[in-house]
Design a protein that fits this description.
90 residues, TATA-Binding Protein, 5 strands
Length: 90
């Protein structure tokens, strides 16, 4: 089970949502050091946490596993992701 599981519906279509997700991930890379790669419509996050960022035609879902040390920052991480998603998908 993911330590963080955030899902948002959107009406942007898959390509536009993926483009905006990519822009959001670039900002998160700069602010939080997020690393990973795209495999089709899934961004596989490898550091500093592990998880996925999946984009579909109508939904964006982020699932993250946090290390024991990172769990103390769960609220902060969720807040940053929610804030970034709200901006990216609006």
């Amino acid at each position: 089970m993911a330590a963080i599981d955030i899902s948002r519906t959107h009406a942007l279509g898959k390509e536009e949502a993926k483009k905006r997700a990519d822009q959001m991930l670039v900002k998160l890379q700069e602010k939080m050091g997020i690393k990973g790669t795209w495999a089709d419509d899934v961004f596989n996050i490898t550091a500093p946490v592990t998880g996925t960022f999946k984009v579909t035609e109508t939904n964006v879902r982020i699932e993250l596993e946090l290390s024991f040390m990172m769990r103390a920052m769960k609220g902060t991480i969720e807040g940053k992701i929610n804030e970034s998603l709200d901006k990216a998908l609006s």
